[in-house]
Write a structure and sequence with these properties.
The protein is mainly alpha-helical. It has helices spanning 7-12, 43-47, 58-70, 91-98, 124-135, 158-202, and strands spanning 21-22, 50-51, 111-114, 143-146. The protein contains six helices and four strands.
């Protein structure tokens, strides 16, 4: 938000609601998404976005969801062509398409690194790009690294994945899952992805 005042202060002053959406769905068929529970590792993050004091009203949310049903994305929830919707009558979805990267393919070595439980930038965004590149193959195949996954046989990033797992477990032991999610994006993931990036480009 365009403010120098911390969100915590705005909330304590009653100027910024603690939730994004109403815990009452805009229509009965949206109850399953109020909140969503899949993927399970992000269910607590989704739940935190709903409440009785919320920012985005149900009319706006309902209009967005209705447009998504009428003009589905080709990458979610069902993978078809992997592309953004061909058309949309919702202004926000139209603007999101303008900023969507599913019209780009890399022409140089590329590494995408993140963690599958990131509550700030969902790793699902990477999955969308992978689906797009499947039907629009780049000249140079990108490497997609989930630093929060189990090492595989001959995994060049096995040591980093093991290190990340140890760091994650340490934070969990000190404060549980909420503590992990609080530092996941800005503290836990960056040093391991930075090391992966250095290793990747040193090899290229």
């Amino acid at each position: 938000m365009p403010s120098t005042t911390p969100v915590s202060t705005l909330r304590s002053e009653g100027k910024f609601p603690p939730a994004l959406f109403s815990s009452t769905p805009p229509a009965p068929n949206y109850a399953v998404y109020t909140p969503a529970t899949s993927p399970a590792n992000l269910a607590s993050v989704f739940a935190a976005g709903f409440g009785t004091d919320y920012l985005i009203n149900n009319d706006y949310r309902g209009a967005y969801l209705s447009d998504a049903l009428m003009h589905p994305d080709g990458g979610f929830p069902v993978v078809t062509d992997g592309l953004p919707p061909a058309s949309s009558s919702n202004t926000l979805r139209t603007q999101l398409k303008v900023n969507d990267l599913r019209n780009w393919t890399p022409t140089a070595p590329t590494l995408l690194c993140g963690g599958n439980s990131d509550p700030t930038v969902f790793f699902f965004n990477t999955t969308l790009m992978q689906n797009y590149w499947t039907s629009h193959p780049p000249a140079v195949t990108p490497v997609v690294l989930d630093i929060d996954s189990a090492p595989t046989a001959n995994d060049p990033y096995a040591t980093l994945k093991t290190g990340f797992s140890a760091a994650r477990d340490l934070v969990y032991a000190q404060g549980g899952e909420s503590a992990v999610l609080a530092v996941y994006h800005a503290t836990l993931v960056p040093p391991f992805c930075l090391s992966a990036v250095k290793s990747f480009f040193d090899a290229h």
